[in-house]
Amino acid sequence: MRSSLLIDSDVLIDHLRKEKNALDFLSAELEKGAMLFTSVINRVEILAGMRRGEEDVINSLFKTLITIDVDVAIADRAGEYLRRFSKTHALNIGDAIIAATSMEMGLKLVTKNIKHYPIKEIQIIRPY
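Above: the chain's sequence. Below: its structure in token form.
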């Protein structure tokens, strides 16, 4: 069975910076036939930090990923997560939406920022 992974911004940024661990991880997953997704929130974060001259590299990266938009189910679940975790764990709206996307779409979340996601029901993979 193919893996379906939601790739968080930190891993995408490492990949764009050509960090070996990120390059190796994503390459290995693609070779195994994994389907790689990202949230529209991750896309916003990457585009917000883009520097002049990085457009082609970033666009190429996005072509290898399936971007998931926020729908009503994701929004509702993100609201639930914010109610449960914003005060106790400082969960922000972006991470709540990413976590909700993982849960609603049945995707494993690939991130190095495990502390950003206190939600026990989502599956998290620390890639390196």
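Residues 72-89 form the longest helix (18 residues).
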